[in-house]
Amino acid sequence: MRFDLLHPADQLVMIMARIYQYGMTTTSGGNLSIRDESGDIWITPSGIDKGTLSRGDIVRVRPDGEVVGAHRPSVELPFHRVIYRIRPDLGAIVHAHPPTLVAFSLARRVPNTHLVPNASLVCGEVALARYEVPGSEQLGKNIAAEFQRGADTVLMENHGVVCGAGDLYRAFMAFETLDFCGRLEIDAGKLGTPRSLTDEQIALDSSKAHPQMDAFVARGVSSEERAGRRDMCALIHRAYDQRLFTSTQGTFSLRLADGSFLITPYMKDRKYIEPEDIVRIKGGMCEADKRPSRSALLHRKIYETHPGIHSVIIAHPPKIMAFVVTDAAFDSRTIPESYILLRDVKRMPYPASALDTVATAAQFSDRTPVLLVENQCAIVTGQTLLNAFDRLEVLEYSAAAVIAAGELGGAAMIAPGEIERIERAFNLN
Fold it and tell me: Pairing with 157, which of 169, 359, 411, 426 sits 20 to 30 Å away (CA)?
């Protein structure tokens, strides 16, 4: 789907539906806007249910102030106009009140965007604006002052967040990523002291070269490949809806019978990814006119090293990532299902997975199907695509349970003797 080809009203409806669906705003809260090439501002209306918003509800405000539409524009229109005036590079604004970011606004803090590599690049500089009455001229001035100083994301005291970008999708990415960082920081703080990446470490990750591969033109598509593309998309959509990763995070791959593999593309919206977006890698060559995930070489090395692995998932689920960005050890011995599926979960230092694919691939075995890379990701392998996805879910659910148990006094793990009984009962040795 070409999001940029959608009409501004359709873009606003689509993004607001996502924000509302994932509990990041309420029926009456939040507003979005787009400034088009003529200078018109398309904005969500005031007093209309965000859960049922339609394109006919969107309001158009012309440069001379004329309002076109069936409703009044959002009461926050003044600060949208001020931001656009002082930042001609911005084409869209997202404003909403996700509970996590409201919590930070109450604490007078901004989330740490240096816990994982790409977050600071997506969010840009994050600032905190002083409180003022919603819809007031002074609130607009307070927010605009931070944007004028160079911030692209502004948290408002006792209010919510405002994200600006060149287009609505990138503004949403910043909004979604900042919320992820906030949730991650809160959960990590329950386990220990979150470990931040340095500017040098982040620069190293961002400079990572995209895999250079010769291209091949596919000559027909097998039923196996069609099914693989379909099943990958279904589970990618499910993973996104479960918030196991954000719109541009997360990589799925699936090995085919001929030794080639399918992998998610680079920088495609995971919520709307389609079978034709999936990229096939064959004999070290890439399907023509497509860009695979930057981790494609790691996936390839895992498949070369382990004939029994047929699917690999790299993801950033927030609960397990709380362990990844702290020194807290993750133990899979929570419930029998967790241990049976996850076994011995290993850790590697940042950014080993990106720099040494051979050493990273060597970490996996029947006893170690899951690897945590500090401040980066979880890597999950499986005998099938569904098996890998099941492990990803169980990994996140188990991490959530351990964090919650910590709030109740601590987690008691299954005793070693009982682990031996589980291994005998399920032939795990």
Answer: 169
Residue 205 pLDDT class (50, 70, 90 cuts): confident
List every span in the chain annotated with CATH 3.40.225.10: 3-191, 215-425
> Among 37, 76, 276, 287, which one carries the catalytic annotation?
76
| Residue 76 among the catalytic residues | yes
Weakest mean pLDDT among 57-61, 180-184, 282-286, 384-388: 282-286
Owner of token pair 């209309």: 48
Exposure of 229 by Cβ count < 10 A (0-12 exposed, 13-18 middle, 19+ buried)?
buried
Distance of alpha carbon 272 from alpha carbon 212, whole angstroms: 26
CATH superfamily of 215-425: Class II aldolase/adducin N-terminal domain (3.40.225.10)
Q: What is the pTM of this model?
A: 0.94
Instruction: Give the per-residue pLDDT at 135.
Output: 81
Question: Coil, strand, or helix at residue 84?
Answer: helix
Beta carbons of 79 and 132 less than 8 angstroms apart:
no
What does the block give as tokens for 309? 């692995």
C-alpha pair distances (Å), 49 with each of 20, 29, 34, 58: 10, 9, 19, 12
The CATH architecture to which 3-191 belongs is 3-Layer(aba) Sandwich (3.40)
| Residue type at position 293 | S
